[in-house]
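W.,

You were right to be curious about this one. When I first looked at the sequence I had no strong expectations either way, so I just let the prediction run and decided to look at it fresh. Below is the sequence, 421 residues in total, followed by the output.
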Amino acid sequence: MSRTGKKTAAWAAILGVVFGCGPIACSGERAVLTGADVLLRDGWERATGLPPMPLGVVTNHTGRLRDGTHLVDALLDAGCEVRAIFSPEHGFEGSAAEGARIYSAGETYRGVPIHSLYGVTTRPDASQLDGLGALLFDIQDVGARFYTYVSTMARTMEAAAVRGLAYVVLDRPNPLGGTVVEGPVLDPALASFVGLFPLPIRHGFTVAEYASWIIGDTLLADAEDLELHLVLMDGWERRMSFEESGVPWIRPSPNMPEPATARVYPGTCLVEGTNLSEGRGTERPFELVGAPWAEAERTAGWLNDLQLPGVRFRPARFTPGLPGSAVEVKWKGEECRGIEIEVTDRETFRSVVTGVAVVSAFRHLYPDLFRWRAAHFDRLAGVSWLREGIDAGLSPGDLEERWREATAQWREEAMACWLYP
C-alpha cells in the first residue's frame, strides 16, 4: 500500500464514525446501522467533520435509512441544502433494465434536479456541480467488480477532485461479507465501466473501503486533490452475511431480488458473456442457467460430479421473460433446460469458481450449440485467458489455481484499507 493509501486509511479511522460493538436490538441480536443511519443519528458536522454546505447526492432507491426514509428526504427535512441528485445505472428509482440508457433531463425529486450518470455521460459535468461544496454517495453495492455502482462512485470522485469538492461516502454492508476474495485480478487492458480497476471479481470491500483503496493506490486522476470523508457503519463485521446485519434488503437492481441472488452473482454473471440464459426475466435470476437446446439432468449431473464445496445443482426448466414484461432477455418466451444453483453452505461456497464450472459444463456438453460473446465475457472476467482455458478443456480447479496467487497477493495489499474487524 502506498503512503497515500495509509494516510487515507488513517483519515477513515478519524472521519468515519464507529462506536464500540454497535447498538443492541430487543432480540439480543446486533443491529447494524448504515453510514446513512449514523449520519442522521449524529448530524452532518459530527459524522463528516465538515461544516454545512450545498450537497449533490449520488444515490438511488437503495439510499434509505433503517426505517425506510429516503436519504434525500431525511437530509431535506433536517435542513440540509441538497441542490442536485445523481443517479447510476437503473435510474433513481432502480427500475430501468440492465444496460438501458437513462435520460433524466427535467426530472426532479422534491424540487431537486436529477442528473442521470448512465445516459449521455457517466460523470457529472461542470454545470451540474456549480455551487456545490460536496458530493455524498449512498448506494447499496453487491460486492462484485462488474456491478457498475462502484464505477459511478469512482467517476463522481474524479469529478469532485477536479472541482475541489469534498467527497463523502456513507458505508453499507457488502452482501457477500468481507473476508473472501475470489476470481482473476482485472487486466488493465480490459478496463471498462464493468471493471475500471485491477481487483478480483469478488473483492471483499465495502464501498467506503473501495473508495479508500482507489484513492490510496492513486488509481484516479487528480486523486491527491480529493478530500475524502468516510462515514462508517456501526456494528458491522466482515464475517456477517447480509441477513445477519439486520439491514433491510432493497433490491439494488431489477434482477437482484434477494441476498441469495447476490451470493451467486459474481460467478453466474459470467453467463452474460455466452448465449445461455442467466435466468433474467424469471423469479430466480442468476440462480438459473440454461438454454432451449440443453438437457437438464445431464448438465446437473456433470456439475454435481465435480463436488464443488457448498453448492448443489438441481435440474431445472424455466422460461425467461416475466408475463407482461417488455424487457428483452435471452431466449425470451422459450423454455430453457439447465440447472438451478442451491447454495448449501455459505461459508465454503465459492461463487466465481462455481460460475466458471457452470459455463464449462455447457461449453463441453454442447460444443456445437454453445456460443461465446467473447468480448463481453472477457470484460466481465477481466482476463482473456479464462475463456481460452475453458475452451482448452482446463478444469474449474485448474483455472482457479491460475488466479489464486495473484488474487491472494492482491488481498494482502488490500487489507491495509479494511476498516472493520
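Here's what jumped out at me. The CA atoms of residues 77 and 156 lie 25 Å apart. And, maybe more interesting for your project: The longest strand covers residues 311-318.

Coffee later to discuss?

I.
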